Amino acid sequence: MSEENESRQPFKRPFRHFTSPKTENKEFVFGVQSVLETLRSGKEIDRLLVQRELGNSEILDLAREKGIQVQKVPLEKLNRITRKNHQGAIAFVSAIHYAKLENVIADTFEKGEIPFILILDRITDVRNFGAIARTAECAGIHAIVIPARGAAQINSDAMKTSSGALNFIPVCREDSLLQTVDFLQNSGLKVVACTEKGRSSVYAVDYSGPVAIIMGSEEDGISDELIRKSDDLAVIPQSGQVGSLNVSVAAGVVIFETVRQRGL
Question: What homologous superfamily is domain 98-261 in, according to CATH?
Fold first, then answer.
C-alpha cells in the first residue's frame, strides 16, 4: 500500500498492544492435572468440558473463580474428542488473547480516531468468522465483539481462514451483548443492526461517526433484543430469488460501505 493511501486512513490504527495473540500448539488439553494447570496459568479458555457423572470439584471451583463456563457432558462426548486418558476433563484453549472493549474504545478516542466496532451475534461457523475477521482487519475496524457463549471457537481453522488477520485485530469476548450495546451507546457510538428486518438501505445509513455494526447468526440472524436496542436497522437490497446472503458476504458489504463513507 502506498504512503498516500495510508495517509487517507485516519481511523485505521492496529492496536498491537492489545493484540499480538499467540497461537497455541494444541487446541485442547485433557486430563485433570493438565486442565488444572491450564486454568492456573491464566490462558484463555474457550470451552471447558467435564464428565457429567464425575465432575472434579477443584476444576469446577477454579473455573467458577475465573468466570469460565463449564459444560457437564456425557463420557461419550469426551471420547469423541479424544480417545486418550482425558480423566473426564477437556479444556479448549483459545488461539488468541482477548482484548477489553473499554480499553479499545478509550484508546480510539484518545488517538483522535473515529470508533468502528463490529459485533457478531452468535456466529458459529468458524470459517465465516475467519472470513469476517479478515475483512474487518483490511477495513481498519478497531475491534470485533463476540459473546462469551454461543460463538465460533477461535481455533486454527479460524486463524487460517482469517489469513492471519486475527493476529492484528482485537477480539473482545463479552458476557452480555445487550450490556455491550448499552456501553457503546453511552460511549457515543451509534449501533446499527444489519438485518432483513431493516427499515433503511445499508447505503442510506450514516456510518461516518462513531459506529458499531451488528451482524447476526447464520441460523436466525440478530436476536430480537439486540434489534430493539439498536439505533438503526439496515437492510442490504437484493433482487435475486435467494432469500439472503452469506453472513461473511453481508458483513463485507456493510463494512466497506462504512469505509466508502469515511472517504478512503
Answer: SPOUT methyltransferase, trefoil knot domain (3.40.1280.10)
**493438565: which residue's cell?**
34
Q: Which three cell numbers stand for residue 42?
A: 491464566
The CA dihedral of 68, 72, 77, 81, to the nearest 10 degrees, is: 20
Cα-Cα-Cα-Cα torsion 219, 246, 81, 39, nearest 10 degrees, comes to -90
Residues in Cβ contact with 119 at an 8 Å cutoff, skipping those fewer than 6 apart: 144, 145, 146, 177, 180, 181, 191, 212, 213, 214, 215
Is the pLDDT reported for residue 91 higher than 80? yes
183: left (phi over 0), alpha (psi -120 to 50) or beta: alpha
83/2: higher pLDDT = 83
Residue written as cell 463476540? 146
Domain boundaries, the chain: 28-93, 98-261
Supply the mean pLDDT for the chain: 86
CB atoms within 10 A of CB 2: 7
